[in-house]
Amino acid sequence: MKPAHSNARIVYYTHPLCPVSWRMQENWQEFISTFGRLLSFKFCMATWKAEDENPGAGCKTAYVKACQAVKAASLQSQWAAHFYLDALRNAAMAEQRDISQVNVLVDIAREVSRTHRNVFDLQRFGEDFNSPATRRALHDDELKIRVNKVEHIPTITFTVDGKGIKATGLVTTEELKRMLGRITMQVSANRSPGESINR
What we know:
48% of the residues lie in helices and 14% in strands. The protein is an alpha/beta fold. It has one domain (4-198): Glutaredoxin (3-Layer(aba) Sandwich).
């Protein structure tokens, strides 16, 4: 029998330069390392740089290329996107590298392919980077953000069978675990969660 949370779907709305996402990176890493193989997760990339900027103006920023790189990685798998986004964020925030430059994005991909060669294919990343599929995936993210009225980054949603809960802002590992437990328990009990955690 599958565990209840195997039906859970997580969407992490974020951006490579989001300072709050950077501060909660270890929390996310711990959570996804524990539960990532037992559920579905994906990254929805916001193409605006600051937490509270207007999404409608975001596509004019130079950092769309960085978001595009994450989507190119996601065409391989969400784990490939996870490892790439982690390295991308570290390059930008800790190492102060300019991730608006394509050559930097490729260098990061090369580094990820060395450390996660069974998950991340450098050659495919290069092929996918400017592909119609990658551009379409990024466009779909922008549409999803508008349709779901995501106004702040980061936002993390948990859904099971069409019912969900949402967290906005800095979230601890324990809060992520509680959200997962809550959504699976409440859906199993046929109750609608309809709950948000906002900061």
